[in-house]
């Protein structure tokens, strides 16, 4: 569709717009952004309201799962949230890791960081921080994190191999990730693939489920498990903004599946003799 920098600009611009809107606006528009005009996030999002740490002001309705529900976060853990937005998943993680732990949110959108820091300040948390950075180049040292979480963000990253390599790098040996994301089974119509709005809306940036899992395997993670999976149905009123009637019919008949999945993986406790990218294999 576009090169990597153009894709990042699409995402950064759209999520800057989202950060300045009210939650009600975000929940009724494409990936939260009024004017994007399509993907209602009620289609994607799970309900956070019963979880400890939930903060309504930090929930912009942008997720596609509940990664913290499966992340096995323990008291005292250091947790990093990739694409932390306004901070909702960080605050839920903080309720699990407690005052003795630490939660770090990383986001590439300044407006989201401002919003997240304001929310953390209102809550009085001293062990939750938010850093500017990209997932392909995390602002963290090696082997420093107990748990990585992320909610409907990796599909927005152009270089997914580098993103998972970075996750592997920052995790401590024997630690793990749990991430929710959008994947495909089958091919999207060209009209959806080329739509920048649908990229920011977490659809056209999604890759094949099998390819997604293969990238995780190639990053040297172990014990990879799909913890939860649900089908996402895009209504015709959304599709008609990008496809004609014939293309919509063909899309339905193709049985292409769009899924929200939550995936778990371990970083080995003992380093392999041939680490990813070492050139020794």
Q: What is the gyration radius calculated from CA atoms?
A: 18 Å
Query: At the third CATH level, what is the topology name?
Result: Rossmann fold
| Percentage of residues in strands | 15-25%
Overall geometry? globular
CATH H level, superfamily name: Vaccinia Virus protein VP39
Helix share of residues? Answer: 25-40%
Number of strands: 7
H/E element string? HHHEHEHEEHEHHHEHHE
Largest beta-sheet characterization:
7 strands, mixed
Q: Which stretches are poorly predicted, pLDDT < 50 over at least 5 residues?
A: 28-38
Number of helices: 11
Mean pLDDT, to the nearest integer, reads 82
Q: Nutshell version of this structure?
A:
The chain is an alpha/beta fold and 281 residues long. It has helices at residues 4-19, 23-27, 67-70, 88-97, 110-123, 160-170, 190-193, 196-200, 209-218, 236-239, 245-253; strands spanning 78-82, 102-107, 128-132, 145-151, 171-185, 222-232, 257-266. Helix 1 packs parallel to helix 5.
């Amino acid at each position: 569709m576009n090169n990597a920098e153009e894709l990042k600009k699409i995402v950064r611009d759209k999520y800057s717009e989202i950060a300045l809107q009210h939650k009600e606006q975000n929940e009724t528009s494409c990936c939260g952004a009024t004017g994007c005009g399509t993907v209602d996030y009620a289609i994607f999002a799970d309900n956070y309201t019963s979880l400890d740490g939930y903060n309504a002001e930090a929930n912009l309705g942008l997720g596609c799962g509940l990664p913290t529900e499966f992340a096995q976060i323990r008291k005292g853990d250091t947790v990093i949230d990739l694409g932390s937005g306004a901070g909702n998943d960080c605050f839920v993680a903080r309720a699990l890791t407690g005052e003795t732990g630490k939660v770090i949110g990383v986001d590439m959108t300044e407006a989201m960081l401002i919003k997240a820091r304001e929310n953390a300040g209102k809550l009085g948390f001293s062990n939750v921080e938010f850093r500017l950075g990209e997932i392909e180049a995390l602002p963290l040292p090696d082997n420093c994190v107990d748990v990585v979480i992320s909610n409907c963000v990796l599909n927005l990253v152009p270089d997914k191999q580098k993103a998972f390599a970075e996750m592997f790098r920052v995790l401590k040996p024997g630690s793990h990730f749990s991430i929710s994301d959008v994947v495909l089974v089958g091919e999207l119509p060209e009209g959806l693939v080329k739509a920048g709005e649908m990229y920011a809306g977490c659809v056209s940036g999604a890759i094949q489920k099998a390819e997604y899992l293969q990238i995780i395997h190639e990053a040297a993670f172990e014990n990879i498990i799909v913890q939860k999976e649900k089908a996402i149905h895009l209504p015709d009123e959304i599709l008609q903004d990008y496809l004609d009637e014939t293309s919509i019919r063909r899309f339905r008949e193709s049985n292409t599946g769009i899924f929200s999945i939550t995936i778990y993986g371990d970083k080995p406790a003992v380093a392999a003799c041939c680490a990813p990218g070492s050139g020794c294999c």
